[in-house]
Design brief:
Length: about 70
Amino acid sequence: MLEDDIQELISRGWWVSVTPVNVGGKWKFTCGVYKKYKKSGNWVTNNCKSFANPQMCYDWALKQIEKDV
């Protein structure tokens, strides 16, 4: 993800987090899509899913954000 993309997401109140996790001896990547609420300022998990590689995470996350915007 490019710096411009990251700044655009943050300015719109969205954040994507990708974390490697070991599940049953295999590595997967868990993706969390977070939404920042204006009134409270809190970041809350909007959706979460695991994938075989990080690129799949980012592709899925951007589709999720597009649905909610």
